[in-house]
Specification:
The protein is of the alpha+beta class and 293 residues long. The chain has 2 domains: 153 residues, 2-Layer Sandwich (Beta Polymerase, domain 2); 128 residues, no CATH class. It has a 5-stranded mixed β-sheet. Helix 2 runs antiparallel to helix 5.
Length: 293
Amino acid sequence: MNSISIDISGRIDPERIAVLRGIKDVADELGIRFFVVGAFARDVIFEHIHRIPAPRITEDIDIGVEVASWEEFHRLTGTMSERDLLDPTTLPYRFSARRFPAVVDIVPYGVISGQTKSISWPPDHQRVMSLLGFEEACQSALRVQFSTEPPLGILVPSVPALAIMKIISWNDAYPSRDRDASDLLFILESYGSTDVLSKLYEFHIPLLTEEEFDPRFASVRLLGREIALLGRVETVRTIEEILERETDEDRSLRMLADMVRGVSFRSDNIQAALQLLKKLLQGIKEERSRDCP
């Protein structure tokens, strides 16, 4: 875990802070590590840390919890229900906050996912979910101070980790997760407006030069390199395979279609999104080639 702490106190409404505080109290009591994921993590990173407006602000809270078994997962969620924090819904991972109109999705990862890095949801175990990238995301997460009085520090994934999880989630649940693709497009378009720009000018001038000092393309290639450095071998290989398929113009380009859904249908929008995906893949391959000469 990164030791850097970022303070966003006062930027998230008190009701949502109260829900997060309740979750953290129970998780700490049971010795369970967790971090925020999904669209909520996107909002924290871009809207609240970097002040880059997100395409839509989510009212929901998504978290990943590190557990060894379904018994441990149910002990956590059961304790939250007993303490009037959350109510279960018809979906095994979805809960409703009792004191605030918000949906809370809780996804278990860690030992529970076994060697396959996937889980099948009880009771019927028909719904299978890939958890590739979750462990890397938590291990590299930043500690963000959501409140100072009283203090509330919660782990939030880095941008490369968030991009990994968005790609895996989209691929895992296609065609029902088009929002993951649109979120990925937002990440690719916005990364150059974060503090990564100073990193490019300080450490990656050759990369900027190759991209004719276009911060969007240079930052996305750097993001690809960071993904390759962060992810485990299996995770990066899976990401690379997905992007290879989804940038092959002789195929259906399903991710691209989901990325630009709802955007005015113009060929330049589509080509721009495809170019960003190709730059991301290029960055991943560049870093992987360094490890495999």
